[in-house]
Each structure stands twice: as structure tokens, then as C-alpha cells.
Amino acid sequence: GKLQEAKAYADNLVSKLPTQSNLTLQALVLSAQGQEQAAIDTFKFALAAEEAGETGSSAYTRVLLGQFYYKHGQLELAKNLYKEALVIIPRYPLALLHLAQLQTRQGNYQAAEKLYAQVLPNSQKSSTTYDHTVYRGKAKLKQLQGEQQQAVKLLIKAEDLLRQENATGHGEGSFGHRRELAWLLLEKNNPKDTAEALSLMQAEIRIRRDAQTLDTLAWALYNSGRIREAQQAIQSALQLGTQDAAIFYRAAAIAKALGNKQQALTYKKLSQQIDPTFNQQARLALGMGLENLKF
After folding, report:
1. pLDDT surpasses 70 at 226
2. Residue 41 and residue 72: Cα distance in Å, rounded?
3. What are the structural domain ranges in the chain?
4. Per-residue model confidence (pLDDT) at position 177
5. pTM recorded for the entire structure
6. Is there a contact between 61 and 20 (Cβ–Cβ < 8 Å)?
């Protein structure tokens, strides 16, 4: 969440060496600051700077630009970029995961299932860093298709993996998967899991204060009934400038809970301006605990 420092480092890197990787970093910072057009232009400069043989950077930049478009509801642009990344690196896990998420949002559940199967085939013996994401994604597919028992089994697998990863190799000041585990626990929406999620996010916020972490903390506080504190957390997220429809929608929910109807409607409108397609299906696919909120 130290965006000014990040911007200074990224600008310095690009001024010395305007490579695809460095320009991509610069674009990420601009996006996090809410400088949308500058971010798009810089992503395009990054693609223009790619050189033969830089397959990893070329695929990665396309996935990140695709994610940018996805968050603004430009799903076909995002889909094309993910597919380009898969042409460059067949079965590239990051592209497969984001494409599966997109297909889920569009209601193409069988297509999403096939993509997850490429990331985590049944024949695979060893675990990877993507496994818990696959299980959560597949669980979401089962939930959306009304297969709750299968969804629960997959979520248990994801939770077990996240707990193992958080228990090994990550010190108090390290980036582990606390935030991912908190998201999973918050989606379960019961008091015991919510309390644990809040504890996880209170630890996480001490080492990073980016928009997603602050949003997840706000969610945990909201579900704990600590609405005023949730408002403080979401305001800190908004002040970073990151243009994320989900964060503005969370701000709307918190404002509504505090009885600020007009402010809630304003935040909802801003959410729709960022992503005009951010409807109930999009929220269900994302899994943010606000699927059925009424304004």
C-alpha cells in the first residue's frame, strides 16, 4: 500500500531501463493509484517493448492488462488477452485461472471447469501454489450450480491447504495466504469463522495496507457488527485511489448499514461507473459476501 514509494521506484526503473517488465510494474502502480488512462497507456508501451524470447514477461503483461479490463467489465478484451497469453505459454496457470474466473462470471460453467482441470489435472501428484485457488474456483462453480455438498468438500480442501501454507514457512512479517484464508472464512459467514478471519486480517494489516487488504478487513469488521470500524477501513481503501467496483460496492453496503442512504447510493453509482457489468452474477462469481444486498 505504499503507492508513492512504489511509483518513485517504478519511475526510476523505467527511466533507466524501459523494458517490458519495468513498464508493467509502472502500469500496476498507476492502476493502484487510480490513474486509469495512464495505466492503460503504460501497459500498451510494455507490450510494444517486448522482445523475442521474453515469453514469461509477454504472457504476464497480457494477463495483468486482461485483469485490468476484467475489473472494468470489458470482458471480451480481457478474454482475448488471456487467450494470447496461453498462445505464448500453453497451460500458463495465471492465464487459465483468470480465464476460468471470467467464464464463471459469464455463466459458462463447463468451460470454467475445463480450465481449472488444466491447472490441476487429476493425474497431478505434487501440490502447487495454485491448488487452493483451483479448489475455491471449483467450489464456486458447484455453489452456482446448486451442488452445495460438492462445494463444501472442495472448500474444505482449499481451507486445509491454506492452513498448511500459513503454518509453514511464513513468519509474522511475511506475506503468506492469511488474506486468502480470511476470504474463504468470511464466505462461510458464521460467527466462529468470522472471528478468525478478523484476527487474520488484523495481523495482515500490520504488514500491508493495499486496497484489497483494507477491503477484506472492512468485510471482516462488517460481518462482526463493527460497522464504524468497517467504515474507517473502507475509507482508507478508497483514499488510495484504486478503482475497484467491489470496493466501492462494499463502501455502499457499509454506508447503508450506518443509515446513510444517499451516500450508499453514491458509492453504488461509482461502482457501476467503474464496471457497468458489476451485477449480481459478477458478485456471485467474485464471492464477496454482498450478492443479495438491496438498496
Report:
1. yes
2. 16
3. 185-295
4. 86
5. 0.93
6. yes
Closest of 258, 184, 182 to residue 213, by C-alpha: 182
pLDDT, position 170: 52
Per-residue pLDDT, 125: 64
3-state secondary structure 264-282: HHHHHHHHHHHCCCCCHHH
Sign for the pseudo-dihedral over CA of 94, 175, 188, 135 = positive
The grid cell for 201 is 486480517
Mean pLDDT of 202-231: 96
Q: Which residues are within 8 A (CB) of 237 and not within 5 positions of it... i.e. 6 or more apart? A: 211, 214, 215, 218, 247, 251
pLDDT at 165 (0 to 100): 83
Tell me the fold of 185-295: 1.25.40
CB-CB contact of 67 with 52 (8 Å) = no
Separation of alpha carbons 100 and 116, rounded Å: 7
Buried (b) or exposed (e) across 113-136, using 16+ Cβ within 10 A?
A: bebbebbbeeeeeeeeebbbbbbb
The alpha carbon torsion through 127, 133, 139, 140 (nearest 10 deg) reads: -170
Q: Is the pLDDT of residue 229 over 60?
A: yes
Mean pLDDT score of the chain: 93
Residue 233's nearest CA partner among 187, 207, 201 is 201
Beta carbons within 8 Å of 257's beta carbon, 6+ residues apart: 222, 227, 230
Based on the number of CB atoms within 10 Å of its own CB, is 163 exposed (0-12), middle (13-18) or buried (19 or more)? middle
pLDDT in tens, 233-278: 999 999 999 999 999 999 999 999 999 999 999 999 999 999 999 9
Which H or E element spans position 211? helix 211-223
